[in-house]
Amino acid sequence: MQVNGLPFNKYSWIMTHNSFSIIDAPPLPGVQRLTFYNQEDTVTNQLRNGVRGLMLDMYDFENDIWLCHSFQGQCFNFNAFQPAINTLKEVEAFLAENPTEIVTIVIEDFVHTPKGLINLFINAGLDKYWFPVSAMPKEGEDWPTVTEMVQSNRRLLVFTSDASKEAEEGIAYQWRYMVENEFGDNGIQRGSCPHRKESKPLNSRSASLFLQNYFPTYPVEADSCKEHSAPLVDMVNTCYRAAGNVLPNFIAVNYYMRSDGGGVFDIVDKINGRALCGCNTVTACQVGAPFGSCNNITVPTTSPVTNTAGSFTGYVQFSRSASAVHSPKCTPLMAIIVYIQAMAFKRTF
Questions:
Q1: Mean pLDDT of 252-258
Q2: Domains and CATH numbers, the chain
Q3: Which terms does the UniProt entry file under GO BP (predicted)?
Q4: Phi first, then psi: what are they for 74, rounded to 5°?
Q5: Cut 0.85: pTM above it
Q6: Which of 69, 85, 221, 338 is paired with 22 by a 20 to 30 Å CA distance?
Q7: Beta bridge partner(s), residue 286
Q8: More reliable by pLDDT, 159 or 226
Q9: DSSP secondary structure string for all residues of 166-183
Q10: By C-alpha distance, which of 311, 302, 275, 270 is closest to 5?
């Protein structure tokens, strides 16, 4: 049986915002970290759980390139996490162990060392998976199919916020290839989905990827359960309309495992099910069957639970002994994840 995937830009993927900003990440020796946290588990676990997009903030720091939370555009010891190569080696190990998977990295780029960023990826062993800028669609055309990307081993897409890096280092300038809505609180206002100022309008057809940000300015772990339920579904629909009836390719969230229902996993499952086979869930698709032929699988519905915790519960760590208050109604979603490894359903007409 022949198996073909759709073009890469026809799918939706989970992306973690500040993927490196992990609750239990140790601070530098002798330093009290002062920053917000956005995720609960390692990048390796994020990838194993089905995340396929990573947002990484990179800075020159201590004669190296580090992952760091910005403070006036600079990295300091109190908001630094670790050398970026450590996280990139996690990505390399995952790609080596999973030869049909594709990973996208979006970099908030404050690296000024000449050739520093491209050399970082080379030193991490990721150049062998590199999707070259020369092969990226420039006018909104479809990307290669996921099958073609896997067969050619071009399984790592990297985008930078620094336009100069495309010509100087061969790293794609993000907003030449994707549109993006506002981040932070401006990106989660009900009924509104404005584009980020660096991005073209969401309904532009000159870029074929769409990144939807869905996270508040200040991450609050307990609130993420409520945020990732009905409000997230509502915002995906709002941004779909703002983008001219185009669904997001990446949905970027904090605390990706948390939800009062199916959360971001459920949303991308439904989006991909409709793209692949015209069904409401990937699990209803039938290999080799005509488009629209679906297994009889009940898609569960959930009623959002209102979080009644009245106090701030984010992880702002002022000392090693700091702890967070957890809402008893907000627990990690241990979802059964449907991997779309090689996209093993053929769309036929």
A1: 95
A2: 8-284 (3.20.20)
A3: lipid metabolic process
A4: -130, 155
A5: yes
A6: 338
A7: none
A8: 159
A9: HHHH--EEHHHHEEEBPP
A10: 275
